[in-house]
Q: What sequence folds into this?
């Protein structure tokens, strides 16, 4: 446990020391802020014209939806360095000759990335606080939506970590991560391609269930908390970490 | 203590280590010599619990590398050849980090202790990226020592250092050898001679020979070409050298005479010197033509066989026996 915490601590510190983490934070907050401002202006325009403005929860949901969409860039960037840098620098050899199991540092690193993501997600609460001043907020709905966004981030980071373990090149890891997360994001829509084809009905169902959106957009994002959705994200994280650990372990069998 | 028994490591079809056996005693420095690509790093990676062997067995500090990998890793300090370090950390930060993972108590004082040991306390708070190559090597060594391991495995620790740093590091390794089992790889024979109590020579995944370094050097030099320098034109002395009975043949190479011994088991140097002095030539230098391990290896392959072992301590490996029986 001490070893896991040591790895975790080092990795978290590293995020706060790295330029790219600040660049992501800046870009994300800028983007999010502009969207927030736009949503508020629309609401005020609607009210000014005597209409019924969208409620605060819906505004938050809209913002969270885009936030989660942007993760196809953010998660790969957060995860790309985790393993690939260690293998390129050769420090993986040091880690792998310490008396700890491979999963310990894989999990420690993942938790650190997820922690940084939690910090990013936490920053968006500023807008929630502002909204709370303007109207009433259904905290139950918002809470579930945030839980969903949090799990979504964890799952996408874990998936991207697999690529970081496969390649020593951070850029390649990031690119493959973007592709994978985008594919998982679109999977729910892709499932529809097979619809109407009876033979492919199962395939369609499977692809849709595999997709991130099927477990987020119409469920957790709108405040619907289902065990299967939470299980989906948790399983996604666990399976990805397991695969990452296995890939790291193959280094023990390779020549270099 | 390290015991290696018929150790094999395969990568696909390629066999990097072909059934080697040796022992490294505690309180001794065991040198692991061989040219690049001989299988030194592969063997060391097996002994540090990084990679499992494909066959045979090895125990480090009494633990089996295959079945008790974690116990092995607890008792080994390893300095990989590339000296991987986290460049963003300070020297002491890195050592404290490793100490925490290894569950070492009193981390800060322990980290300072090992830094003191390698003479780097003054740079404890420097970022590793700002340290010189020699200093980094010492941080790597300090990292290997942080948990006071029974066994130390150092993969070519002197490579890339300047001569003074090399001397310092050799002293440190000899010193460490008194308290730990130290295994130390190099491809410089003279280095092994200075530092090691015992030497294991490996080539193409097989042990060529092992034993006391000074004896081994003599043994490996036996039958090798002799380089002779005399005052004046070497061609004047060439005839005299050619007349010596223990010399098969002699020729001029640049400014020196190279003599080929007639019998690989007999050193012709004494005979040559005597003959030259009697013929009133002033001998300036006489030595084996090969001066370092690479050259000696070349010599050995040129001779196409290796001199017979000189003691019971030096087993003949199977390949040599096979090669000799064919002759």
A:
């Amino acid at each position: 446990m001490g070893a896991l915490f040591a790895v975790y601590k080092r990795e978290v510190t590293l995020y706060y020391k790295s330029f790219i983490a600040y660049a992501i934070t800046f870009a994300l907050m800028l983007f999010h802020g502009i969207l927030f401002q736009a949503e508020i202006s629309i609401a005020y325009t609607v009210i000014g014209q005597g209409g019924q403005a969208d409620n605060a929860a819906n505004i938050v949901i809209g913002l969270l939806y885009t936030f989660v969409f942007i993760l196809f860039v953010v998660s790969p960037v957060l995860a790309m360095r985790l393993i690939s840098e260690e293998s390129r620098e050769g420090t993986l050899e040091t880690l792998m000759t310490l008396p700890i199991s491979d999963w310990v540092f894989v999990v420690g690193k993942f938790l650190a990335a997820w922690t940084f993501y939690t910090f990013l997600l936490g920053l968006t609460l500023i807008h929630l606080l502002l909204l709370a001043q303007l109207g009433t907020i259904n905290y139950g709905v918002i809470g579930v939506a945030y839980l969903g966004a949090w799990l979504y981030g964890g799952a996408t980071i874990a998936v991207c970590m697999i690529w970081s373990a496969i390649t020593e090149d951070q850029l390649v890891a990031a690119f493959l991560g973007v592709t994978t997360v985008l594919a998982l994001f679109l999977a729910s829509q892709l499932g529809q391609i097979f619809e109407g084809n009876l033979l492919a009905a199962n395939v369609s169902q499977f692809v849709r269930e595999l997709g991130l959106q099927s477990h987020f957009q119409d469920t957790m994002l709108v405040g619907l908390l289902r065990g299967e959705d939470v299980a989906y994200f948790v399983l996604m994280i666990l399976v990805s970490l397991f695969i990452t650990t296995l890939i790291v372990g193959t280094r023990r069998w390779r020549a270099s | 203590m390290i015991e290696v028994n018929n150790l094999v490591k395969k990568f696909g079809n390629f066999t990097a280590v072909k059934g080697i056996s040796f022992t490294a005693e505690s309180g001794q420095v065991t040198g692991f010599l061989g040219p690049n690509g001989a299988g030194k790093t592969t063997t060391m990676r097996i002994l540090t619990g990084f990679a499992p062997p494909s066959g045979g067995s090895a125990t480090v500090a009494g633990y089996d590398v295959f079945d008790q990998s974690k116990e092995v890793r607890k008792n080994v300090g390893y300095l990989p050849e590339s000296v991987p370090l986290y460049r963003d950390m300070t020297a002491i930060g890195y050592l404290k980090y490793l100490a925490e993972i290894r569950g070492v108590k009193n981390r800060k004082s322990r980290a300072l202790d090992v830094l003191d040991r390698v003479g780097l306390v003054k740079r404890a708070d420097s970022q590793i990226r700002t340290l010189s190559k020699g200093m980094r090597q010492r941080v790597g060594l300090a990292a290997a020592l942080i948990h006071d391991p029974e066994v130390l495995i150092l993969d070519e620790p002197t490579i890339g250092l300047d001569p003074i740093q090399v001397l310092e590091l050799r002293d440190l390794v000899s010193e460490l050898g008194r308290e730990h089992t130290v295994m130390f790889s190099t491809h410089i024979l003279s280095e092994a001679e200075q530092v090691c109590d015992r030497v294991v020579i490996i080539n193409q995944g097989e042990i060529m020979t092992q034993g006391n370094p000074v004896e081994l050097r003599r043994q490996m030099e036996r039958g090798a070409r002799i380089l002779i320098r005399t005052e004046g034109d070497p061609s004047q002395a060439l005839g005299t050298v050619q007349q010596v009975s223990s010399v098969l043949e002699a020729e001029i190479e640049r400014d020196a005479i190279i003599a080929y011994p007639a019998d690989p088991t007999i050193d012709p140097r004494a005979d040559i010197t005597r003959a030259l002095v009697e013929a009133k030539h002033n001998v300036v230098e006489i030595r084996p033509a090969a001066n370092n391990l690479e050259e000696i290896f070349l010599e050995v392959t040129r001779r196409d066989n290796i001199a017979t072992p000189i003691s019971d301590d030096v087993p003949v490996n199977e390949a040599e026996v096979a090669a000799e029986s064919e002759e």
In short: The mean pLDDT of chain A is 89. The two ends of chain A are 29 Å apart (CA to CA).
